[in-house]
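Comment thread on ticket #2218

A.B. wrote:
> Attaching the input chain for the structure job we discussed in standup.
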Amino acid sequence: MKHNTGTLWLVALVCFGPFAGALFLYYGPLDPGWLPQLPGQRELLEPSVPLPAEWRDADVEAEPWQLIYARMTPCEQPCVQHLVRLLQVHLALGRDRDRVRRAVWHVGALPPLEDPQLAVRLLDSAPGREIAAALGGERLGEGRVLVADPRGEVILSYPPDVEQKELLRDLERLLSGPDS
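C.D. wrote:
> Ran it. Output below, let me know if you need it in another format.
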């Protein structure tokens, strides 16, 4: 039986070409900045920022994920609206909502909130000032939505008006991951 050399090369190209192309793109001389990024306004914090020890649950082996609204200015009406939006995202998690805890980090007085499950932390306390400095106090001026993993590390940051769909999608991905 006689094989056509061109056919063998074509089969090899079809089988190994995509793998070779991917290796070239990943390890090659090209800048990966042209690759498409996930849509949205998220910012991956590198390095991640550890939560203050005083704000962590010492008696819990693995903490839940945390959905945090942080603001270095007094919490007024826009702040309350952002907290309501985070509550809606939390409720949309369905059965996974028990794996996520919500928190607000603020300065000054907090308006009356009828939300007993919301953890409240003061950024004008010693641990609050430390984490605000680590995250960049100017970034927290008008508020940021933050996500902390079960190890107690703040890993993601969003603007306060992030779309709820984007935040929910990211949380669902994090909760379905192998380390969750």
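A.B. wrote:
> Thanks. Noting for the ticket: The beta strands are 43-50, 65-70, 100-106, 119-122, 144-148, 153-158.
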